[in-house]
Amino acid sequence: MAIRQTAAQIGGYTKRARAAAKFRQQIPMHLMLLPCILLVAVFSYYPMVGILIAFQNYNPTKGFFNSKFVGLENFNYVYAMPETMQVLWNTIFIALLKIIFGLLVPVIFAILLDMVRRSFVKRSIQTLIYIPHFLSWVILSGILVDILSPTDGIISFMLKGMGIEPVFFLANEKIFPYILVVTDVWKEFGYGTIIYLAAITSINTSLYEAAVMDGASRFRQVLHVTIPGIMPIVVLMATLSLGNVLNAGFEQVFNLYSPVVYKTGDILDTFVYRIGLLNSQYGVATAVGLFKSVVSFVFIVAGYKLASKFAGYRIF
Question: What is d(CA 23, CA 32) in angstroms, rounded to the nearest whole number?
Answer without folding.
Answer: 14
